[in-house]
Design a protein that fits this description.
With about 280 residues, the chain is an alpha/beta fold. Helices cover about 40% and strands about 25% of the residues. It has 12 helices and 8 strands. The protein has helices at about 15-25, 25-35, 35-45, 60-70, 80-95, 125-135, 155-165, 180-190, 215-225, 225-230, 230-235, 240-255, and strands spanning about 5, 50-55, 75-80, 100, 110-120, 140-150, 195-210, 265-275. Helix 3 packs across helix 4 (about 60-70) and helix 7 (about 155-165) packs antiparallel against helix 12. It binds S-adenosylmethionine (SAM). S-adenosylmethionine binds near residues 59 and 104.
């Protein structure tokens, strides 16, 4: 066996709902475009052979697999079993001994030298609790690294465009891009309930996403976004499905950085590196 299954840490009902949403679209196709971010996070985490690492909201396993390639003892955790199955298959194909666990960010287990999250913890319903849980499961002197879309970047703009076609989020849910706001992330990790995060360094970087045309980009977006796929019937019945594609194609045109053929956008993310006190 190239991967070990461990028992589910009883995902919460909101995590179960999130899981069915993430499974509804072709997220693995999007994840393939985000590999450079996982590599950046693992470089910032600084892993060596034998380092234990937990990848929170691992999806199809980009960061856990990158760490395992460097010899880390990696665990990937996510509430979406369908994405974990893809991650486990990738590990098998590469012969990497990664452990996969079905759990949300507030139900982590074990203590790890590094705890990382690439656009994963940002989808937990309670960011303070998720941050505290990441600190709790990081070894003293260890490091936590998070990558999250910034509130002023392309992903946030795309979320706003899609949000016009989706049911409103729960009233108490802050936008996931709060995880891309350095002040908020500092506040959560420095909070007493996070217990002992010391140094917090933040920087911004971006990932490039290129497509043959704005409409191809819009189609890719809709195909990979589970929350849109989950609403597809309703949107088709109301005639909004085409309008959604049109809005997204217009957004890609607006953010396009390469005049001429094709479309390329840069989506910025906040990289936060937190050191846990000894
Ligand atoms: C944008 S994807 C990122 C996946 C992966 N880290 C990557 O880089 O491709 C968001 C992930 O967060 C997961 N997720 C949703 N709710 C979560 C929660 N409460 N705790 C942890 N992960 C969650 C989803 O299942 C999904 O895999």
């Amino acid at each position: 066996m190239s991967e070990t299954s461990v028992p589910s840490a009883s995902p919460t009902s909101s995590a179960t709902r999130a899981a069915s949403t993430w499974a509804a679209g072709d997220y693995p196709a999007m994840a393939r475009r985000l590999v450079p971010v996982a590599d950046r996070v693992i470089a910032a985490a600084g892993v060596a052979p034998g380092t234990t690492l937990l990848d929170v909201g691992c999806g199809t396993g980009n960061a856990a697999l990158a760490a395992a390639r460097l010899g880390a003892v990696a665990t990937g955790t996510d509430p979406t079993p369908e994405l974990l199955a893809v991650a486990a298959r990738r590990a098998r194909e590469e012969g990497l001994p990664v452990t996969w666990q079905e759990a949300s960010a507030d139900r982590l287990t074990g203590v790890h030298d590094r705890v990382v999250s690439v656009f994963g913890a940002m989808y937990a319903p309670d960011p303070r609790r998720a941050a505290a849980s990441m600190v709790e499961h990081c070894a003293p002197g260890g490091r936590i690294v998070s990558a999250a879309w910034t509130p002023d970047g392309f992903m946030a703009a795309a979320s706003r465009a899609m949000g016009r076609y989706l049911p409103p989020p729960p009233p108490d849910a802050g936008p996931p891009t709060h995880w891309g706001d350095a002040d908020k992330v500092r506040e959560w990790f420095a909070a007493p309930e996070a217990g002992g995060a010391t140094e917090i360094a933040t920087s911004t970087d971006h990932v490039r996403l290129a497509f043959a045309s704005p409409i191809e980009a819009a189609e890719f977006w809709v195909r990979t976004a589970g929350h849109l796929q989950a609403e597809r019937r309703r949107l088709e019945a109301s005639g909004a499905w085409q309008a959604l594609h049109h809005d997204l194609a217009a957004l890609f045109t607006e953010w396009n950085r390469t005049p001429g053929s094709g479309v390329e956008v840069e989506s910025s993310y906040l990289l936060a590196v937190v050191t846990r006190s000894v």
